[in-house]
Amino acid sequence: MAYILFVNPTILGASGMNKGAVFTATALSAIIGCLLMAFLANYPIAIAPGLGDNAFFTYSVVLGMGISWEKAMTGVVVAAILFTILSFLKIREIVIDAIPRDLKLAMAAGIGIFIAFVGLQGGGLVVANKSSLVAIGALNVPTTWLTIFGILVIGMLMARKIPGAIFIGLVSTTVVGLITGLIKAPSKIISLAPSLGPTFGAGLKHFPSLVDPQMWAVVLIFLLVAFFDTAGTLIGLAQQAGIMKDNKMPRIGRALMADSLSMLAGSVMGTTPTSAYVESSAGIAVGGRTGLTALTTGLLFVLSMLFSPLLTVVTSQVTAPALIIVGVLMVSALRDIQWQRFEIALPAFLVVIGMPLTYNISYGIAFGFLTYPIMMTVAGKRKEVNGIMWALLFIFVILLYVLNLMPKS
Protein backbone atom coordinates (compact mmCIF):
# COMPACT_ATOMS: atom_id res chain seq x y z
CA MET A 1 0.00 0.00 0.00
CA ALA A 2 3.02 2.28 0.41
CA TYR A 3 2.76 3.47 -3.19
CA ILE A 4 -0.24 5.66 -2.33
CA LEU A 5 2.10 7.92 -0.31
CA PHE A 6 3.70 8.94 -3.60
CA VAL A 7 0.88 8.45 -6.09
CA ASN A 8 -1.69 10.52 -4.19
CA PRO A 9 0.46 13.69 -3.94
CA THR A 10 1.31 13.38 -7.65
CA ILE A 11 -2.34 13.17 -8.74
CA LEU A 12 -3.74 15.74 -6.31
CA GLY A 13 -0.74 17.99 -6.92
CA ALA A 14 -1.95 18.37 -10.50
CA SER A 15 -5.05 20.11 -9.10
CA GLY A 16 -2.90 22.74 -7.38
CA MET A 17 -2.68 21.13 -3.95
CA ASN A 18 0.59 21.19 -2.02
CA LYS A 19 2.25 17.80 -2.57
CA GLY A 20 4.03 17.76 0.78
CA ALA A 21 0.83 18.43 2.70
CA VAL A 22 -1.01 15.76 0.68
CA PHE A 23 1.74 13.25 1.53
CA THR A 24 1.22 13.86 5.25
CA ALA A 25 -2.58 13.88 4.97
CA THR A 26 -2.43 10.60 3.06
CA ALA A 27 -0.29 8.95 5.74
CA LEU A 28 -2.36 10.26 8.65
CA SER A 29 -5.71 9.25 7.13
CA ALA A 30 -4.30 5.77 6.47
CA ILE A 31 -3.10 5.54 10.08
CA ILE A 32 -6.51 6.62 11.41
CA GLY A 33 -8.36 4.22 9.11
CA CYS A 34 -6.17 1.22 9.94
CA LEU A 35 -6.38 1.81 13.69
CA LEU A 36 -10.16 2.21 13.56
CA MET A 37 -10.51 -0.98 11.52
CA ALA A 38 -8.29 -2.84 13.98
CA PHE A 39 -10.03 -1.73 17.17
CA LEU A 40 -13.63 -1.28 15.99
CA ALA A 41 -14.05 -4.23 13.62
CA ASN A 42 -11.02 -6.48 14.32
CA TYR A 43 -10.57 -7.21 10.61
CA PRO A 44 -7.32 -7.69 8.63
CA ILE A 45 -8.37 -4.94 6.24
CA ALA A 46 -6.33 -1.76 5.85
CA ILE A 47 -7.68 1.66 4.86
CA ALA A 48 -6.04 4.55 2.98
CA PRO A 49 -7.01 7.17 0.35
CA GLY A 50 -8.22 5.26 -2.67
CA LEU A 51 -7.08 5.35 -6.25
CA GLY A 52 -9.80 6.48 -8.65
CA ASP A 53 -11.38 9.04 -6.36
CA ASN A 54 -8.21 11.14 -6.49
CA ALA A 55 -8.16 11.01 -10.30
CA PHE A 56 -11.85 11.98 -10.44
CA PHE A 57 -11.15 14.86 -8.03
CA THR A 58 -8.29 16.28 -10.10
CA TYR A 59 -9.12 15.54 -13.72
CA SER A 60 -12.92 15.58 -13.75
CA VAL A 61 -13.85 18.05 -11.01
CA VAL A 62 -10.97 20.53 -10.73
CA LEU A 63 -9.49 20.53 -14.25
CA GLY A 64 -12.60 19.35 -16.13
CA MET A 65 -15.30 21.38 -14.39
CA GLY A 66 -13.12 24.34 -13.46
CA ILE A 67 -13.86 24.09 -9.72
CA SER A 68 -11.05 25.14 -7.39
CA TRP A 69 -9.49 22.35 -5.35
CA GLU A 70 -10.65 24.05 -2.16
CA LYS A 71 -14.29 23.96 -3.27
CA ALA A 72 -13.91 20.42 -4.56
CA MET A 73 -12.56 19.40 -1.16
CA THR A 74 -15.70 20.89 0.39
CA GLY A 75 -17.64 18.40 -1.72
CA VAL A 76 -15.51 15.60 -0.28
CA VAL A 77 -16.17 16.83 3.28
CA VAL A 78 -19.95 16.89 2.72
CA ALA A 79 -19.87 13.44 1.12
CA ALA A 80 -17.87 12.18 4.12
CA ILE A 81 -20.42 13.61 6.58
CA LEU A 82 -23.29 11.94 4.70
CA PHE A 83 -21.22 8.76 4.50
CA THR A 84 -20.78 8.70 8.27
CA ILE A 85 -24.49 9.31 8.88
CA LEU A 86 -25.44 6.44 6.55
CA SER A 87 -23.02 4.17 8.40
CA PHE A 88 -24.32 5.23 11.82
CA LEU A 89 -27.90 4.50 10.70
CA LYS A 90 -26.71 1.08 9.40
CA ILE A 91 -28.10 1.84 5.94
CA ARG A 92 -24.83 0.77 4.33
CA GLU A 93 -24.91 -2.48 6.30
CA ILE A 94 -28.49 -3.21 5.21
CA VAL A 95 -27.64 -2.63 1.55
CA ILE A 96 -24.58 -4.90 1.62
CA ASP A 97 -26.48 -7.71 3.36
CA ALA A 98 -29.14 -7.51 0.62
CA ILE A 99 -26.67 -8.21 -2.20
CA PRO A 100 -27.13 -11.79 -3.54
CA ARG A 101 -24.33 -14.27 -2.78
CA ASP A 102 -23.48 -14.84 -6.44
CA LEU A 103 -22.89 -11.15 -7.02
CA LYS A 104 -20.70 -10.97 -3.91
CA LEU A 105 -18.61 -13.85 -5.26
CA ALA A 106 -18.39 -12.09 -8.62
CA MET A 107 -17.22 -8.91 -6.89
CA ALA A 108 -14.45 -10.84 -5.15
CA ALA A 109 -13.28 -12.44 -8.39
CA GLY A 110 -13.60 -9.19 -10.32
CA ILE A 111 -11.41 -7.38 -7.82
CA GLY A 112 -8.88 -10.19 -8.12
CA ILE A 113 -8.68 -9.82 -11.90
CA PHE A 114 -8.60 -6.04 -11.55
CA ILE A 115 -5.63 -5.99 -9.18
CA ALA A 116 -3.84 -8.61 -11.31
CA PHE A 117 -4.31 -6.31 -14.29
CA VAL A 118 -2.94 -3.42 -12.23
CA GLY A 119 0.06 -5.59 -11.40
CA LEU A 120 0.64 -6.63 -15.01
CA GLN A 121 0.47 -2.99 -16.04
CA GLY A 122 2.67 -1.72 -13.22
CA GLY A 123 5.24 -4.41 -13.90
CA GLY A 124 5.44 -3.57 -17.60
CA LEU A 125 4.07 -6.92 -18.80
CA VAL A 126 0.98 -5.26 -20.27
CA VAL A 127 1.09 -1.87 -21.99
CA ALA A 128 -1.31 0.45 -23.80
CA ASN A 129 -1.77 -0.04 -27.53
CA LYS A 130 -3.68 2.28 -29.90
CA SER A 131 -4.96 -0.49 -32.16
CA SER A 132 -5.81 -3.17 -29.59
CA LEU A 133 -6.01 -1.11 -26.37
CA VAL A 134 -3.54 -3.42 -24.62
CA ALA A 135 -0.53 -5.44 -25.72
CA ILE A 136 2.36 -7.35 -24.22
CA GLY A 137 5.12 -5.17 -22.82
CA ALA A 138 8.66 -4.90 -24.11
CA LEU A 139 10.68 -7.87 -22.84
CA ASN A 140 13.92 -6.06 -23.60
CA VAL A 141 13.25 -3.66 -20.71
CA PRO A 142 15.26 -4.87 -17.69
CA THR A 143 12.70 -3.77 -15.09
CA THR A 144 10.08 -5.98 -16.74
CA TRP A 145 12.30 -8.97 -16.00
CA LEU A 146 12.40 -7.83 -12.39
CA THR A 147 8.63 -8.34 -12.31
CA ILE A 148 8.94 -11.74 -13.97
CA PHE A 149 11.58 -12.72 -11.42
CA GLY A 150 9.23 -11.74 -8.59
CA ILE A 151 6.32 -13.73 -10.05
CA LEU A 152 8.46 -16.85 -10.39
CA VAL A 153 9.91 -16.56 -6.88
CA ILE A 154 6.54 -16.03 -5.21
CA GLY A 155 4.91 -18.68 -7.42
CA MET A 156 7.50 -21.31 -6.54
CA LEU A 157 7.30 -20.47 -2.84
CA MET A 158 3.51 -20.67 -2.95
CA ALA A 159 3.68 -24.03 -4.73
CA ARG A 160 5.96 -25.30 -1.98
CA LYS A 161 3.54 -23.88 0.62
CA ILE A 162 6.26 -21.75 2.21
CA PRO A 163 4.77 -19.37 4.83
CA GLY A 164 5.23 -15.70 4.01
CA ALA A 165 5.84 -16.45 0.32
CA ILE A 166 4.57 -13.09 -0.91
CA PHE A 167 6.62 -11.10 1.60
CA ILE A 168 9.77 -13.13 0.88
CA GLY A 169 9.19 -12.56 -2.83
CA LEU A 170 8.87 -8.80 -2.36
CA VAL A 171 12.09 -8.60 -0.35
CA SER A 172 13.95 -10.83 -2.81
CA THR A 173 12.83 -8.74 -5.78
CA THR A 174 13.86 -5.53 -4.04
CA VAL A 175 17.31 -6.92 -3.19
CA VAL A 176 17.87 -8.09 -6.78
CA GLY A 177 16.75 -4.68 -8.05
CA LEU A 178 19.22 -2.88 -5.78
CA ILE A 179 22.10 -5.23 -6.64
CA THR A 180 21.55 -4.92 -10.40
CA GLY A 181 20.99 -1.17 -10.23
CA LEU A 182 17.45 -1.46 -11.58
CA ILE A 183 16.23 0.14 -8.36
CA LYS A 184 17.98 3.31 -7.27
CA ALA A 185 19.22 3.30 -3.70
CA PRO A 186 17.71 6.11 -1.59
CA SER A 187 19.85 9.23 -1.13
CA LYS A 188 18.97 9.48 2.55
CA ILE A 189 17.21 7.44 5.18
CA ILE A 190 15.29 9.83 7.43
CA SER A 191 13.06 12.73 6.41
CA LEU A 192 10.55 14.53 8.60
CA ALA A 193 6.96 14.65 7.35
CA PRO A 194 5.93 17.93 5.63
CA SER A 195 3.44 20.33 7.26
CA LEU A 196 -0.33 19.88 6.85
CA GLY A 197 -0.79 23.64 6.85
CA PRO A 198 -1.47 24.23 3.12
CA THR A 199 -4.43 21.81 3.00
CA PHE A 200 -5.74 21.39 6.56
CA GLY A 201 -9.32 22.62 6.90
CA ALA A 202 -9.53 23.94 3.33
CA GLY A 203 -12.70 21.94 2.71
CA LEU A 204 -14.45 23.61 5.66
CA LYS A 205 -14.22 27.12 4.23
CA HIS A 206 -16.44 26.90 1.15
CA PHE A 207 -19.80 25.55 2.34
CA PRO A 208 -21.65 28.50 0.71
CA SER A 209 -20.58 27.08 -2.68
CA LEU A 210 -23.01 24.19 -2.08
CA VAL A 211 -25.83 26.36 -3.44
CA ASP A 212 -24.44 25.44 -6.87
CA PRO A 213 -26.25 22.30 -8.22
CA GLN A 214 -22.99 21.31 -9.89
CA MET A 215 -21.41 20.95 -6.46
CA TRP A 216 -24.15 18.55 -5.35
CA ALA A 217 -23.48 16.43 -8.41
CA VAL A 218 -19.88 16.23 -7.22
CA VAL A 219 -21.02 15.27 -3.71
CA LEU A 220 -23.34 12.56 -5.12
CA ILE A 221 -20.58 11.02 -7.20
CA PHE A 222 -18.10 10.96 -4.34
CA LEU A 223 -20.75 9.47 -2.05
CA LEU A 224 -21.89 6.67 -4.38
CA VAL A 225 -18.49 5.74 -5.74
CA ALA A 226 -16.96 5.60 -2.26
CA PHE A 227 -19.96 3.61 -0.98
CA PHE A 228 -19.68 0.82 -3.52
CA ASP A 229 -15.89 0.81 -3.90
CA THR A 230 -15.55 0.04 -0.20
CA ALA A 231 -18.53 -2.31 -0.12
CA GLY A 232 -17.18 -4.34 -3.04
CA THR A 233 -13.69 -4.47 -1.58
CA LEU A 234 -14.89 -5.48 1.90
CA ILE A 235 -17.00 -8.29 0.48
CA GLY A 236 -14.21 -9.52 -1.78
CA LEU A 237 -11.68 -9.57 1.05
CA ALA A 238 -14.14 -11.23 3.45
CA GLN A 239 -14.75 -13.96 0.88
CA GLN A 240 -11.01 -14.50 0.53
CA ALA A 241 -10.50 -14.64 4.31
CA GLY A 242 -13.39 -17.07 4.75
CA ILE A 243 -15.17 -14.89 7.29
CA MET A 244 -18.51 -14.60 5.48
CA LYS A 245 -21.31 -16.34 7.41
CA ASP A 246 -24.69 -17.06 5.79
CA ASN A 247 -23.89 -14.56 3.02
CA LYS A 248 -23.24 -11.86 5.63
CA MET A 249 -20.06 -10.25 6.91
CA PRO A 250 -19.99 -10.19 10.73
CA ARG A 251 -19.31 -6.78 12.28
CA ILE A 252 -19.58 -5.13 8.88
CA GLY A 253 -21.28 -2.14 10.51
CA ARG A 254 -18.15 -1.46 12.54
CA ALA A 255 -15.94 -1.90 9.48
CA LEU A 256 -18.04 0.59 7.54
CA MET A 257 -17.93 3.06 10.43
CA ALA A 258 -14.13 2.81 10.49
CA ASP A 259 -14.08 3.60 6.78
CA SER A 260 -16.51 6.51 7.16
CA LEU A 261 -14.68 8.15 10.06
CA SER A 262 -11.31 7.89 8.31
CA MET A 263 -12.83 9.44 5.18
CA LEU A 264 -14.16 12.33 7.28
CA ALA A 265 -10.79 12.87 8.98
CA GLY A 266 -8.95 12.69 5.67
CA SER A 267 -11.22 15.22 4.00
CA VAL A 268 -10.57 17.72 6.81
CA MET A 269 -6.80 17.19 6.57
CA GLY A 270 -6.78 17.53 2.80
CA THR A 271 -7.08 14.26 0.91
CA THR A 272 -9.69 12.48 -1.16
CA PRO A 273 -11.92 9.64 0.17
CA THR A 274 -10.35 6.71 1.94
CA SER A 275 -11.28 3.16 1.07
CA ALA A 276 -10.71 -0.41 2.15
CA TYR A 277 -7.65 -1.50 0.17
CA VAL A 278 -7.63 -4.52 -2.10
CA GLU A 279 -3.93 -4.86 -1.25
CA SER A 280 -5.13 -6.11 2.14
CA SER A 281 -5.57 -9.41 0.31
CA ALA A 282 -1.77 -9.80 0.42
CA GLY A 283 -1.92 -9.86 4.22
CA ILE A 284 -4.89 -12.22 4.20
CA ALA A 285 -3.06 -14.51 1.77
CA VAL A 286 -0.23 -15.03 4.28
CA GLY A 287 -2.53 -15.68 7.23
CA GLY A 288 -3.93 -12.34 8.43
CA ARG A 289 -7.36 -12.87 9.98
CA THR A 290 -7.69 -10.24 12.75
CA GLY A 291 -7.27 -6.55 13.39
CA LEU A 292 -3.62 -7.16 14.26
CA THR A 293 -2.91 -7.07 10.52
CA ALA A 294 -4.58 -3.66 10.12
CA LEU A 295 -2.91 -2.40 13.30
CA THR A 296 0.51 -3.42 11.99
CA THR A 297 -0.17 -1.67 8.69
CA GLY A 298 -1.18 1.50 10.54
CA LEU A 299 1.96 1.47 12.67
CA LEU A 300 4.10 0.95 9.56
CA PHE A 301 2.43 4.02 8.03
CA VAL A 302 3.55 5.92 11.14
CA LEU A 303 7.11 4.79 10.50
CA SER A 304 6.79 5.65 6.82
CA MET A 305 6.39 9.32 7.75
CA LEU A 306 9.89 9.28 9.21
CA PHE A 307 11.58 7.00 6.72
CA SER A 308 9.79 8.03 3.54
CA PRO A 309 12.98 7.96 1.37
CA LEU A 310 13.23 4.18 1.94
CA LEU A 311 9.80 3.66 0.39
CA THR A 312 11.21 4.61 -3.01
CA VAL A 313 12.84 1.19 -3.29
CA VAL A 314 9.39 -0.44 -3.35
CA THR A 315 8.77 0.26 -7.02
CA SER A 316 5.82 -0.86 -9.12
CA GLN A 317 7.96 -3.71 -10.46
CA VAL A 318 8.40 -4.94 -6.88
CA THR A 319 4.72 -4.76 -5.92
CA ALA A 320 3.43 -6.07 -9.27
CA PRO A 321 4.20 -9.77 -8.59
CA ALA A 322 2.32 -9.63 -5.28
CA LEU A 323 -0.76 -8.13 -6.95
CA ILE A 324 -0.72 -10.76 -9.70
CA ILE A 325 -0.37 -13.67 -7.27
CA VAL A 326 -3.11 -12.30 -5.02
CA GLY A 327 -5.33 -11.98 -8.09
CA VAL A 328 -4.88 -15.71 -8.64
CA LEU A 329 -6.04 -16.37 -5.08
CA MET A 330 -9.10 -14.11 -5.25
CA VAL A 331 -10.37 -15.33 -8.62
CA SER A 332 -11.07 -18.74 -7.05
CA ALA A 333 -14.44 -17.32 -5.95
CA LEU A 334 -15.65 -17.95 -9.52
CA ARG A 335 -16.03 -21.65 -8.81
CA ASP A 336 -19.00 -21.12 -6.47
CA ILE A 337 -21.11 -18.94 -8.81
CA GLN A 338 -24.19 -20.63 -10.28
CA TRP A 339 -23.04 -20.47 -13.90
CA GLN A 340 -25.72 -22.94 -14.99
CA ARG A 341 -28.35 -20.25 -14.32
CA PHE A 342 -27.93 -17.70 -17.10
CA GLU A 343 -30.02 -15.09 -15.28
CA ILE A 344 -27.26 -15.14 -12.66
CA ALA A 345 -24.33 -15.90 -14.95
CA LEU A 346 -24.74 -12.76 -17.08
CA PRO A 347 -24.80 -10.19 -14.23
CA ALA A 348 -21.96 -12.02 -12.48
CA PHE A 349 -19.88 -12.04 -15.67
CA LEU A 350 -20.50 -8.32 -16.22
CA VAL A 351 -19.30 -7.57 -12.68
CA VAL A 352 -16.16 -9.63 -13.18
CA ILE A 353 -15.25 -8.30 -16.61
CA GLY A 354 -16.44 -4.75 -15.98
CA MET A 355 -13.94 -3.97 -13.22
CA PRO A 356 -10.69 -4.49 -15.17
CA LEU A 357 -12.01 -3.28 -18.52
CA THR A 358 -13.33 0.03 -17.14
CA TYR A 359 -10.48 0.25 -14.62
CA ASN A 360 -13.07 0.99 -11.96
CA ILE A 361 -14.58 -1.30 -9.30
CA SER A 362 -17.80 0.73 -9.09
CA TYR A 363 -18.54 0.45 -12.81
CA GLY A 364 -18.21 -3.31 -12.67
CA ILE A 365 -20.64 -3.43 -9.76
CA ALA A 366 -23.02 -1.14 -11.63
CA PHE A 367 -23.13 -3.38 -14.72
CA GLY A 368 -24.10 -6.39 -12.62
CA PHE A 369 -26.62 -4.57 -10.45
CA LEU A 370 -28.34 -3.07 -13.48
CA THR A 371 -28.84 -6.44 -15.17
CA TYR A 372 -29.53 -8.73 -12.20
CA PRO A 373 -33.12 -7.59 -11.38
CA ILE A 374 -34.03 -7.53 -15.07
CA MET A 375 -32.65 -11.00 -15.82
CA MET A 376 -34.23 -12.50 -12.72
CA THR A 377 -37.62 -11.00 -13.63
CA VAL A 378 -37.46 -12.29 -17.20
CA ALA A 379 -36.55 -15.74 -15.85
CA GLY A 380 -39.65 -15.73 -13.65
CA LYS A 381 -37.67 -15.28 -10.44
CA ARG A 382 -38.89 -11.79 -9.57
CA LYS A 383 -39.79 -12.83 -6.02
CA GLU A 384 -36.11 -13.63 -5.38
CA VAL A 385 -35.18 -9.99 -6.01
CA ASN A 386 -35.54 -7.82 -2.91
CA GLY A 387 -36.60 -4.20 -2.96
CA ILE A 388 -33.12 -2.93 -2.20
CA MET A 389 -31.77 -4.47 -5.43
CA TRP A 390 -34.47 -2.65 -7.39
CA ALA A 391 -33.61 0.59 -5.63
CA LEU A 392 -29.94 0.07 -6.47
CA LEU A 393 -30.83 -0.41 -10.12
CA PHE A 394 -32.32 3.08 -10.30
CA ILE A 395 -29.49 4.60 -8.25
CA PHE A 396 -26.91 3.20 -10.64
CA VAL A 397 -28.88 4.46 -13.63
CA ILE A 398 -28.69 7.96 -12.13
CA LEU A 399 -25.00 7.50 -11.28
CA LEU A 400 -24.06 6.44 -14.81
CA TYR A 401 -26.16 9.28 -16.27
CA VAL A 402 -24.44 11.90 -14.10
CA LEU A 403 -21.01 10.45 -14.87
CA ASN A 404 -21.79 10.62 -18.57
CA LEU A 405 -22.54 14.34 -18.22
CA MET A 406 -19.21 15.01 -16.51
CA PRO A 407 -16.42 16.43 -18.69
CA LYS A 408 -13.97 13.72 -19.70
CA SER A 409 -10.34 14.23 -18.72
From TrEMBL:
Keywords: Cell membrane, Membrane, Transmembrane, Transmembrane helix, Transport. GO terms for cellular component: plasma membrane. InterPro entries: Azg-like, Azg-like_bact_archaea, NCS2. It is a multi-pass membrane protein. GO terms for molecular function: purine nucleobase transmembrane transporter activity. It comes from the Bacteria. The chain crosses the membrane at residues 21-41, 72-91, 103-127, 133-157, 164-183, 215-238, 292-312, 318-337, 349-375, 387-406. Pfam families: Xan_ur_permease (PF00860). It is found in: Cell membrane. Its main location: membrane. Belongs to the nucleobase:cation symporter-2 (NCS2) (TC 2.A.40) family. Azg-like subfamily. This is Guanine hypoxanthine permease PbuG. It comes from Furfurilactobacillus rossiae DSM 15814.
